[in-house]
Amino acid sequence: MVYSLSYRRPSHVSSRESLSGQEKQKSINESVNSGSSGMSHGIPEALSFDRIIAGGVCPPCTVRDFMNYLKYIELSAENLQFFLWYRDYCKRFSEVPESEKALSPEWTGEHVESEAQTRPKRLGAEAASIFKGTDFVSEPRVAEVEKSNPFFTPPRTPNSDSAEGKRDGNSLDSYDESLTSGGKINHTQRASGAFQSVGLKWKPLSVQPYREEIARIISIYVADGGTRELNLSSKERSALLHALQNTTHPSAFHNVITTVEWSLRCQAHPNFIRWTICNGNKPRVIFARGLGVGGIVGGIIAAIIITLSSASRAWRVLSMIGFFIGISTLIAAWKGMCVVLHGMHHRHLRPWELFASDDEPAGYDMKSDSYDSLSSHASSNSWEDEPWVAKYEKRNVVRKVFDREVWIQEPALRQIQDTIFLQAIIGALVLSITLVGIFCAFPKGNYF
Hints:
Number of strands: 6
Strand order of the largest sheet: 1-2
Oligomer: single chain
Radius of gyration: 31 Å
Number of helices: 20
Largest sheet: 2 strands, antiparallel
Distance between the termini: 46 Å
Helix content: 40-55%
Low-confidence stretches: 1-19, 31-39, 112-124, 134-183, 358-375
Order of helices and strands: HHHHHHHHHEEHHHHHHHEHEEHHEH
Mean pLDDT: 76
């Protein structure tokens, strides 16, 4: 199956969750050292994951094509979108002045232990009554006061007019606003809700570099209900939010980016290459399989007729033409290839490519499939309502079989297809000779 227009929920991380973080990191390190994906046996280095991400390949194997595959076929484009953002974020963070970097130290996980050790312990009822009124009892926390006094009003966060609210361009008074304002997502409030869902308090330091951007990323990729929510376990989400509560250093994403990169390298990338090998759409492949079966049936009928006739055995070799064409076409179609399209090194345009607009929006980056501004990440990956879906469904089957074609520009992909075509030819030749030999073994029927 080349593509599917039916919607299904993503299940791309079901198998990867069985591996530990160390195994994933080891698999990624081995992949990087070898220049290939961890489970990409048979994929040439020219089509490796790193080369695709670096923009060193031609269509239809570019980052844009990889993104479209994940969006429309695997329904997991958020992994690649987050991965590309993280690479860009690491680059931008490394260019930050050292004075600002000091505000966001590298995350090592030791903050969790130190915070747990310094957290004040609650006294028992008897001990509390003994130390009541003395200097040894600690002041009640805000949450406890709020529970005990229903009329308690917590201190308001700095508004947009204050100096604290203007430091990073992220007004913290949005806590008191609704989740959406004027049809736009309130990323700050959604990020706050994400911290509260794991039992943490939202206490960001606005002076840290890229604090506003981190709040948006939490809202889009980490928070429940985010437009591009990553498939993370509760443990991974809790650890990530705890790290981002203290720092905006890229090291805070270490565990999550390891999981995402493992999924891209070891699952999505090999599947993408195998899917790209198919040069025809689904109707064309089914049509090619039908031709293959028809060729085989035609060869069998011709062999039977000649065998039952008074013609010599040499004439039975003519049935080999039908066997050879049918078997080779069927083997290539089984791999998702059409031998006619391969002969011209063409491929069918994907459904979303047929009706794509020639005018790309301003600021669109073809390599990273994102806009210059972070607001583009707020868009959902849902595509069921895109115009091309209804237009493609209205096309008749004959038109789909003979859809528009385009030249395959990537040489490495053409070499893979050449190998598959050669295998189909050799396999068809061996099977055809075998079948013709079987028919030649029968004596003449002399029925006509």
